[in-house]
Every structure is written in structure tokens, then in C-alpha cells.
Amino acid sequence: MFRPYASADSALGSKVLLGGSGGRGAHVTFDPMAAGSAGEAAVMFTRIVVGWDGSRESEAALAWAVERGVATPLKLVHAIGGAPTAVEHVRADGEMSAARVRLIEVADQLRASRPDLHLTTSTVHGQPSSVLAEELGEGTLVVVGAPATHRGSRWTVGSRLAGRHGGGTVAVIPSTPATGARSVVVVGVDGSPASMAAVEVAAEEAARLDEDLEVVHAWTVPPGWDSEYLEYLADVQLLEDMHRDLLDEAVEFARGLDARPTGRLERGHAGEVLGRLGRHADLLVVGSHGAGNVTRFLLGSVSHELLVSLPSPVMIVGPGD
């Protein structure tokens, strides 16, 4: 069943029935008032691309993207794998034709309920991560779904997209919305240009949702520091003050973007801190340095760690956005 992407506390709006293959029905609930106000806000993204394969995860991604607002053009992309054949464009019973028809049916039923949507579709051969990576770029938000509880490979489509060197912004949506969500957007900062780009995106998302922005910076004491030295406590305090200055700069930057930011300095590993504070938030935003180094990504990228745990909808802002 195609469930609405909204927290348990959200107001319910009009209901859309999406029929799938084999008589499969899909109920999607949208809030027209929220969508209308979102459409009136200034947008950093000029288009949204949603990865679709008919799964519960892709249904959640589509519902989240539509609820985000109707003013931004929306494109549904279904990558069916394999390679094109010379005669498939003239066959009415091939895999490509069947997949294309199913996607068009989904789009038509959405348009029937939401005529204000600007919606297009694309069904192509190829691996989803590669096909969607071609859509990434300035002004584009790529949205994909993922299981609410991690299972299988750590390398989901979302993590593959976020780890690519070319940049771009990716939103990964858990298949089941969290209950009791806080009305806040959380953004992690570390003083890098990538994290400041994340603050820009997070500030706009908070304004779109009319929510507060929580700017979070996590820090730890270097493991080589010896607590037996008399200077230890003074050095730790000095280090904490330096990290607080970094956080204050990010908060002031967000305030200059007309956001309503609060700062939160937490001692601990960034992935664990952001996962805890981002749990049940409406949105968690982090920057990706886009190093393009697979080894680095496997060895503990904060963004990858968050995509594995997926405490809430997570947006990864790539370099250049």
C-alpha cells in the first residue's frame, strides 16, 4: 500500500488513489494548504527528480516530493536495468513498454488529483544510481527512498548518489515516517564550505516549512591527549571555546539568511550526535565534501553513517550547491 508521507501528528488533506499493476491500490494523503504555501516560497531547487520503481520506498519518496510543494517541476525516473535492444521501441509487450505504461499511469493519476503539478516521466535502461546521477546538478534535488530500518547492503542508491564526486543534492526518505516528529530542521556543521552550503539549503527548507533551524556542531577531545597532565582541563576548555566560536559563526550565517536558528554544541562523534538529534526531526541536512574516494566513504563518512541509520528524511548537500 502506498502510504502518505506525513508524521502521525500531521493534518490530513485530500486523498489520492494510485492504482498499481495487478490491481494494486495506493493511497496517498497530501495537505493542499501546506503545498500551496510551499509553492509560494522562494526555491533553491528549480526541479525535483524522484527515483521510482514501484516499491514502498519509492512511493514514500514520491509522496515526500509532492508534499514538498507543487511549484517546482517534478520528474519521475524509472531505471529498469539492462541495455536497450534494437526492436524494443516497436514492441508493445516488452519490459520497457510495460514499465513505461505503469509509470505513466502513476503520473496520470497524480495529475488527476493534483492538476497544479508540473509532472514528467522517464523510463530508461540502466542502473538506478547511474541514471539518477546524470540528473544531479545545480538547482536539482534528487529524491530516493530507503527502508526505515536498515537491511541488506550499506550501499543503497542514496548512499551511492551522495558519495559521487560530481556533487548535487540528494534527499533520502525512509519508507515509514517517524511518529512524534519535532517541528524543526536540523543541520550539521563543521566549519567547512560544504557544511555552510548545507546551512543555506537547511535555512531555505526551514523557511519553507515555517520551522526553526537547529544548527548542530559535534566535537571530541583528540584521543592522544593525556588527562593526567595538569594542563588537560584548561586545554579542553580552550578547545571547546574554539568549537563554540565555529558554531556561533554558522548560527550567525543562518540568521543572515532570515532563518530562526539556535545553536547546539555537543561533545561526541558527529554521526552519533546528528543521528540522535535528527531522530524525529522533519528534516536533517548535512554537507558532503564530495571527495570521490570510496575508501574514505566506507571508513566513516558522517553522511554515509546517517544514510545507513536514516533517523529521519536526510538531505545530503554536495559541493557546489
Description:
- By secondary structure, the chain is of the alpha/beta class.
- 36% of the residues lie in helices and 23% in strands.
- The protein has ten helices and twelve strands.
- The strands form two sheets. A ten-stranded mixed β-sheet has the order 5-4-3-6-7-12-11-8-9-10, sandwiched between helices. A two-stranded antiparallel sheet has the order 1-2.
- The longest helix has 24 residues, at 232-255.
Record keyword descriptors for this entry:
single chain; 321 residues; alpha/beta; Rossmann fold; 2 domains; two-stranded antiparallel sheet; 10 helices; 12 strands
Task: Write a brief structural summary.
This protein has 321 residues and is an alpha/beta fold. It folds into 2 domains: 32-146, Rossmann fold; 182-317, Rossmann fold. It has 10 helices and 12 strands.
**What's the CATH architecture name of the largest domain?**
3-Layer(aba) Sandwich
Output the CATH topology of the largest domain.
Rossmann fold
How confident is the prediction overall: mean pLDDT? 79
Strand arrangement, major sheet? 5-4-3-6-7-12-11-8-9-10
Rg result? 21 Å
Spatial separation of the terminal alpha carbons: 35 Å
For the biggest sheet, the summary is: 10 strands, mixed
CATH class of the largest domain: Alpha Beta
State the helix count: 10
Instruction: Estimate the global geometry from the Cα principal axes.
Output: elongated
The counted number of beta strands is: 12
Low-confidence stretches: 7-42, 292-300
- Helix percentage range: 25-40%
Give the CATH superfamily of the largest domain. HUPs
Which class best fits the helix and strand makeup?
alpha/beta
Order of helices and strands: EEHEHEHEHEHEEHEHEHEHHE
Overall structural domain count? 2
Strand content: 15-25%
